[in-house]
Amino acid sequence: MSERLLLIKNGEIITAEGRFHGDILCSGEKIVEITAARDAPEGAEVIDATGRYVFPGFIDPHVHITLPFMGTEAKDTWETAGKAALIGGTTTLIEMVCPGRDEEPLDALAHWQANAEGIAPCDYTFHMGVTRFDEGVEKQLRQIVAEHHITSFKVFLAYKGAFGISDEELYGILRLAAELGVIVTAHCENAELVAQLQAELVAEDKVGPEWHEPSRPTSVEATGCHHFLTFAKLTGAHVYIVHTSCKDAVKVIQNAQKKGVKAWVETVAPYLVLDKSAAELPDFEGAKYIMSPPLREKHHQEFLWKSLADGTIATVGTDHAPFDFETQKRMGDPASGGNFTTIPNGIPSVEERIKLLYTYGVAKKRITLETLVRCASSEAARIFGLYPAKGAIAVGSDADLVIWDPSYEGVISQESQTMATDYSAFEGMNTIGRAETVILRGRTVVVRGEFTGKAPEGRHLHRSPGYL
Ligand code: URP
Ligand code: ZN
Ligand code: ZN
Predict the structure, then answer these.
(1) Is the pLDDT of residue 1 over 70?
(2) Where are the domains of the chain?
(3) Is 13 helix (H, G, I), strand (E, B) or coil?
(4) Which residue out of 98, 221, 292, 347 has the highest number of ligand 1 atoms within 8 Å of its CB and is therefore the one to mutate?
(5) Would you say the CB of residue 321 lies under 6 angstroms from ligand 1?
(6) Could you read off the pLDDT of 413-428 as tens digits, one per residue?
(7) pLDDT tens, position by position, 269-309
(8) What pLDDT score was predicted for residue 270?
(9) Nearest-angstrom CA–CA distance, 85 and 90
(10) What is the pLDDT of residue 2?
(11) Could you give phi then psi for residue 286, rounded to 5 degrees?
């Protein structure tokens, strides 16, 4: 049987490097031709993209879907999160495998994989979380890299007594990563400082969500970055700092880069559009906005946007970590004996990332269209060994394409979202533009903003080392 043909005509093609008008011909799962206006070959499906931008499928390098955390489980499944991602224009998700300290890495990977396989409607791969390091774990990590096509680890400097690791373990993980050519992603907050500050605040009866940020100030994040980057320098490992929330942390990372540390910076969508005042809302509403590191003072937002524009920040993910307000965030409600330390951390956002970047970044002229593609697609593909199959509009690349209507105006609401949570942290926010049509490996999965795919079409992606 001959391959399916799809021709996308008359769109303005946007890549990380530039923009131009052209037609894109896809055959089967791949892009096979990019030309000036051409006629459709016989039997081809044709999509007219006049007045639209055509982006490469977006990549979210930091999501949690399977997440046993703080005594509960994240709310989405791969079906709901994957559909939400596609509706938002994201065709590939990179999920964090987060084993418990007593869990074997291979068992954890199998568990995380089983939850996605045959269910995910979008493409996916994993960062392998390392929450314990000993001889047995090292052996399994070598196997995971060699046989399971995973070329990034994840460590937590935060979450003492849960995912957090000791310095001895951190050193061992980074040494192994440097040897294997694996990049190490890290959540950088000093766990001991967080634990001490939390205990002091709770002892003073400062228990509401508004005390979450003071328990993890910017200095705690900056010192966490400095600590991690010192280890990276001395081991030679290549590293990636996840969910960077503030100027203090970015400056520390820039300093390390100047000294030769191979480090990349990620921020996540909530920090760009929300600030600490959201977590201070009365009647426990602030709990909807609890994530770690916390939302910061508003002035950090402008710094993050500028750092995106000048390339200091490489990627924008979401840290999608979906917990219901009524049944899960409420675990930390002081009215029933809880406190801010028992509110499950996370803000659901996998569906809204590109809309938010477009509305508050591109439309406000803080970033260009090319920067949008770089930070939300191409750079993640390069760093994590997916480029140029993903993150590019080029002959031979996967036909993952987003046809974007820049004239669409919407309002974010929980009622119309696909994510499974009972609230949206962006409720009522106006948005400009939407992913009108989304194509995953040559198949149309979103039409006029609605999911039309025949789930599950997602594929586990095999990765090779990225920039290394
Ligand atoms: O608040 C957050 N970030 N929740 C998810 C777990 C993590 O730290 O990435
Ligand atoms: Zn984290
Ligand atoms: Zn995370």
Answers:
(1) no
(2) 57-383
(3) strand
(4) 292
(5) yes
(6) 999 999 999 999 999 9
(7) 999 999 999 999 999 999 999 999 999 999 999 999 999 99
(8) 98
(9) 5
(10) 79
(11) -55, -25
pLDDT over 80 (residue 207): yes
- Supply the residue whose CA is at minimum distance from atom 4 of ligand 1: 346
CB within 8 Å of 451: residues ≥ 6 apart = 83, 86, 87, 121, 418, 445
Quick one: which of 249, 422, 412 has its CA closest to 324? 422
What is the dihedral angle through the alpha carbons of 340, 342, 345, 348, rounded to the nearest 10 degrees? Answer: -100
Q: Which long-range contacts (CB under 8 A, 24 or more apart) does 104-112 make?
A: 104/136, 104/137, 104/140, 105/130, 105/137, 105/140, 105/141, 105/144, 106/140, 106/143, 106/144, 109/144, 109/148, 109/150, 111/66, 112/66
Cβ(216) – ligand 1 distance below 6 Å:
no
Task: Please enumerate in sequence order all residues whose Cβ is within 8 A of that of 265, keeping only pairs 6 or more positions apart, or say none.
Answer: 240, 241, 244, 250, 253, 307, 312, 313, 314, 315
Residue 464 pLDDT: 79
Ligand 1 neighbourhood includes 266 CB (under 6 angstroms): no
Q: What is the 428 CA–ligand 2 centroid distance (Å)?
A: 27
Considering just the CA atoms, what is the radius of gyration of the chain in Å?
Answer: 21
Start-to-end C-alpha separation, the chain: 40
- Residue-wise pLDDT for 353-393, tens only, equals 999 999 999 999 999 999 999 999 999 999 999 999 999 99
Q: Ligand 1 pocket test: which of 64, 76, 189 has the largest number of ligand atoms within 8 Å of its C-beta?
A: 64
Q: Decide if 440 contacts 86 (C-beta within 8 A).
A: yes
Which atom of ligand 1 has the smallest separation from the CA of 159?
8
Distance 211 CA to ligand 1 centre (A): 17
Residue 185 in contact with ligand 1 by CB distance below 6 A: no
Task: Say if ligand 1 is within 6 A of residue 320 CB.
Answer: no
Tell me the per-residue pLDDT of 67-121, one tens digit each, with 9 for 90 and over.
999 899 999 999 999 999 999 999 999 999 999 999 999 999 999 999 999 999 9
Q: Which residue matches tokens 């047995």?
A: 136
Asked if pLDDT for residue 217 goes beyond 80, the answer is: yes
Q: Which atom of ligand 1 is nearest to the CA of 187?
A: 8
Residues 6+ positions from 321 with CB-CB distance below 8 Å: 64, 67, 69, 74, 291, 344, 345, 346, 347, 348
The domain 57-383: what is its CATH number? 3.20.20.140
% of the chain with per-residue pLDDT over 90: 96
β-pair type (53-56, 401-411): antiparallel
